[in-house]
Write a structure and sequence with these properties.
The protein is of the alpha/beta class. The protein has five helices and seven strands; from the N terminus they run αβββαβαββαβα. A three-stranded parallel β-sheet has the order 4-1-5, with helices on both faces. Strands 2-3 form a two-stranded antiparallel sheet. It is globular and about 55 Å long. The termini are far apart.
């Protein structure tokens, strides 16, 4: 009887761990916006749809787990991934990481490129990086751009203006 009483706490803990559903924590950053992340209109912290949600749902279902989404600023993503606070960093790139070799990378899910958005009337003013000297450039906080752009920002040749999303960038551009 005594041995059964000693075993009982371990049994309760084991059964409790079996009853808890596995959870996979996915990161997202709201600056990415649609089509990557669509937030619920009423609760702007709930990912309602988008590529990140579709990927999370597919991965979670294959692993018999539930997805949980955490909004993390770009500059904190790597530390959160290293610490285990998040399991998967979606919509990312090895060039954005300090130690890309420390991670497993999936194949590229889609092709894309960073592009400049300029007023139509100035479309022909920029054909080379040097044309950006003295210009203000809308940038996401913590985002890594082309090495030449990063160098020009560091040297003060470009005035970086922090934007919180595409809509914010367009409003500033129109001003």
């Amino acid at each position: 009887m005594r041995s059964i009483l000693l075993f009982l706490p371990f049994l309760v803990i084991s059964l409790n761990s079996f009853s808890q559903e596995k959870e996979i924590i996915f990161s997202y950053w709201t600056e990415a916006g649609p089509p990557f992340v669509f937030l619920d209109d009423e609760n702007l912290t709930v990912v309602s749809s988008g590529l990140v949600k579709d990927l999370a749902d597919l991965i979670s279902s294959r692993l018999s787990a539930s997805p949980r989404f955490v909004n993390i600023p770009v500059q904190r993503l790597e530390s959160q991934l290293i610490s285990g606070a998040i399991d998967l960093d979606c919509i990312t790139n090895p060039i954005w990481k300090t130690t890309p070799e420390a991670y497993y990378w999936s194949p590229a899910l889609f092709k894309g490129a960073d592009r400049f958005l300029v007023k139509f009337s100035k479309a022909h003013d920029y054909s080379d990086f040097s044309d950006l000297k003295g210009a203000s450039l809308g940038v996401y906080n913590g985002y890594t751009y082309h090495p030449k752009i990063m160098q020009m920002i560091k040297e003060g040749d470009i005035n970086p203006v922090k934007v919180s999303g595409v809509d914010h960038g367009i409003k500033l551009l129109l001003l």
